[in-house]
Amino acid sequence: MELPLECLRVERAGKVAIVTLAREARLNAWTTRMGVELFGTLRALDDEDGVRAIVVTGAGRAFCAGADLETGGSTFSRERAWEESGRLEARVRPWNVRTPILAAINGAAVGIGATLPLHWDLRIASERARIGFVFVRRGIVPEAHSTWLLPRLIGAAKAFDLLLTGRMLDANEALAYGLVSRVVPHDRLMDEALTIATELAEQTSPVAVATTRRLLWRQLMQPDPRAARRLEDEVFRWIGAQPDAAEGVTAFLEKRPPGWRGRKARDFAPGLDEVPDVDE
Q1: For the chain, percent helix, then strand, then coil, each to nearest 5?
Q2: Which of 4, 110, 176, 190 is surrounded by the fewest CB atoms within 10 Å?
Q3: pTM recorded for the entire structure
Q4: Is residue 80 assigned to a domain?
C-alpha cells in the first residue's frame, strides 16, 4: 500500500500475514477508507510469494460492526470513494486470489462485517462472536456478492432465513448453520487461527493450494458438471507435471519435509487466470 494505513495493522508471523481491522473506538465500523486499505493490502500480500496464508481479525471486542453510520441517512449514498474501494475489491474477488485467507471472528460481525468473510476460505469464531446480515433492518439489500455466495456456502433455505430476517446469530448458531467451521474459547482464537494458517504455510505446496482454492471458487460458477470435470481434469494433468508433484511424493517416500519449488505468484494452471469484472 502506498497510503499510510489508518484503519489496519499488518504484522507477520513467519509466512503468515495478520491483518487487523483497527478502528477499535468505532467497533471497527466500515468506511470507504478501510475498504481502500483492506483490499489494497490483501492484493499486495497475495502478490508476495513469501506470504502463504493471511489471517484477518478485529481489534478490541468487535470484528466489524458494519458500515459506520456516523454520516446518518447519507451513509449508503454512493460517492467517488466507494468507486475506488470497489475498483480495488474487484482485484481480490475470491476466484482471483491465490493465497488462503482465514477470518478470525473475535466479536460482532454485522453487515459488511458478515459478508466480507464469505469471500474468504476459512472462518473460525470466538465463543463471543455474533454474526448478522442486518441489511433489511437498515432499509437496504445485502451486498458484497452475499446473495450469490451465501446460498452456495450454507444452502438456499438457510440463506433466505438469514437475509430476509436480518437476525443475529450467536457463535454456536453460526457453527450449526455452517457459517463458521469451528468455535473456540475467546482467548484461544488467534492461537487457533495461527495454528491453522501456519500448517497451511509450512506443510502444503504453494502452487497446489493456490490452484485448489481458485479451482474451488471457479467451480462454484460452473452450472455444467461435465464442464466442471473437464476443467478439473485439465488442471490435474497440468499440476501432475509440475516439479512440486514429484517433490511431494519423493519427500513422503524419503520421510523428509518437502522443498517446494513452485511459486504461487508465477506458476498457474491454464484456465485459472484472473476473471476480470465485466465493467472493467
Answers
A1: 45, 15, 40
A2: 4
A3: 0.91
A4: yes
